[in-house]
Amino acid sequence: MRCTQVVAITLFASLPVLADTRSGFACDTLVVSGNPEYPPLLWVSDRTPKLLTGAVEAFLREIVGPLGVTVQVQNKGSWARVQRLAQLGEIDLVAGAFITSERIGYMDYVLPPMTHLPTNVWVPKARPFEYRHWPDLKGRQGSTLINNSFGQRFDQYAKDNLAIEGVRTIEQSFLMAQADRVDYVLYEQLQGQVKLERLGIADEFVALAPPVSREGLFFAFSKRSVCNSMAFREAFMKQLSALDDQGRLQELIEEYTSYYTDVVR
Q: What is the mean pLDDT of residues 83-111?
């Protein structure tokens, strides 16, 4: 089933919740989290370690601000833990997730996707190998974040055919590759580049072409969240669509890329 069809099915799955709040929606405060290893979209600032900052955090505030709802974009730990909290309903919204069949079971995705992201095979320049399609990764050891997804088709192929070690931070994956403990790192092109620049080793790695996947990145509400009402999702979608038409997230990505790589040290 195509991703857009899946989203259409899940988008309106939850029943409306009667509102009794200042905003007129089901809740006044939206508790949000996401992948803390995702600059320039999201990351943990040393100045505010309990919160996440980045282009998506700023974008989300522009979406929700006009709706009269307060946003708390909290650092809840690893990406695997964030997904678990969404499943339990302990956070209201995941700020950035690819679609998988498992996640559809506990989250309602919001159209349109905020952006599309290519995922690449990253290798040390000193140890490149020929890569043209997924089977070229067979027999090699890879690494990425625990519970990371790069699209349903690739995830299934990797599960059946590839050896990919999950770790807590993507810095760990890149340092393992640098030390010749793994052959490659799987990570999004944008996020991988800014992470390497931050680590000061960008000139030691190269992203092989073509990407292993190119997936839409979505906001997704926990099905157990009290904020997840039909009225709020529709208002959220309207604001998201308007900003998407303006290319607003791309502007913020450029701004926060510069901030992360040039200012934050």
A: 97
- Which domains occur in the chain, in start order? 3-115+215-263 (3.40.190.10), 117-214 (3.40.190.10)
pTM over 0.90: no
Across the range 173-181, mean pLDDT stands at: 98
Structure tokens at 254: 């450029």
Q: Do 224 and 106 touch, CB atoms closer than 8 A? A: yes
Average pLDDT over residues 106-118: 97
| Contact status, residue 11 vs residue 233, Cβ threshold 8 Å | yes
Burial 127-165 (b: 16+ CB within 10 A, else e): eeeebeebeebeebebbbbeebbbbbebbebbeeebebe
Residue with tokens 């320049």: 125
- DSSP letter assigned to residue 67: G
Longest dimension (CA), the chain: 61
Q: Where do runs of H (alpha helix) occur along the chain? A: 3-11, 55-64, 79-88, 101-104, 152-161, 170-178, 189-199, 230-245, 248-258
Plot region of 97 (φ>0 → left; ψ -120 to 50 → alpha; else → beta): beta
Nearest-angstrom CA–CA distance, 223 and 197: 37
Dihedral sign (CA 84, 89, 90, 91): positive
pLDDT digits (tens, 9 = 90+) for 38-73: 999 999 999 999 999 999 999 999 999 999 999 999
Tell whether the model's pLDDT for residue 11 goes beyond 90.
Answer: no
95 within 8 A of 240, measured Cβ to Cβ:
no
